From TrEMBL:
One of its GO terms (molecular function) is ATP binding. Residues 16-264 form the ABC transporter domain. PANTHER family: ABC TRANSPORTER ATP-BINDING PROTEIN, CONSERVED COMPONENT OF ABC TRANSPORTER FOR NATURAL AMINO ACIDS-RELATED. This is Branched-chain amino acid ABC transporter ATP-binding protein. It holds the Pfam family ABC_tran. It comes from Streptomyces griseus subsp. griseus (strain JCM 4626 / CBS 651.72 / NBRC 13350 / KCC S-0626 / ISP 5235). InterPro entries: AAA+_ATPase, ABC_AA/LPS_Transport, ABC_transporter-like_ATP-bd, BCA_ABC_TP_C, P-loop_NTPase. It comes from the Bacteria. CDD domains: ABC_Mj1267_LivG_branched. Keywords: ATP-binding, Nucleotide-binding, Transport.
Amino acid sequence: MTPTATAAAHSTTAALAVEDVTVRFSGLTALDGVSFTVEPGSVHAVIGPNGAGKSTCFNVLSGVYRATSGHVRLGDTELTGLPPHTIAGLGVARTFQNLALPPHATVADSLLLGRHRLTRSGFLATGLRLPSAAREERRHRERVREIAEFIGLDEELERPAGSLPYGQQKLVELGRALCMEPKVLLLDEPIAGMTADERRRTAAVVADVRDSLGISIVLVEHDMGVVMRLADAVTVLDFGRRIAGGAPAEVQNDPAVVQAYLGAPQ
């Protein structure tokens, strides 16, 4: 990472606390009293079989869904019930399972979208190309170059993002989230569909985000090998309930977790 990027790295001091969160849809309970805490600067994996409630949990954390009861707090700041753009403005960025890149935009312009919430120049100043707006744009583009270098895409900045291999397109999405300068990064299946080489590369970038930038990461991922290597702590959901939590090695050997994934022994 460049010295400038290091200087701009975060020193996250706030934990993300999920407290007794319940989500109901027309009588269906998708999350049932779920609690866990993401410690500052850690990777916290949320795992479980299909239908366990992982996506619902992410949608609550990012403001897409409103919890029926319970609380989500970032430090002393209550996030519960806030709209997605407000939560993003408070420092929570998210990637999605499916690619959502502008098809013809360059990598640089795709990353620049992540700087939108940090832009201070008004529409008029930008339209008139006032010096203040031009200076701000130069600063944003310099930060985009730094982040592209951090994720290993600095040689691809002028290429259309949609022309890159799948694994690199997923890295563009990760880079766009980093361009928001988040305190917490929600990664929804970041390595799904990748080749073995792409998985290794992306996992290394995620580890660097934690270790070099100090950003807290909440990770939903089905690749248990990656989860066990990356996660500092794991929360396991099944049918909307938290059935286990702790260090990866503890969780991996928990009988309730084994049963949830493999079914009850014959």
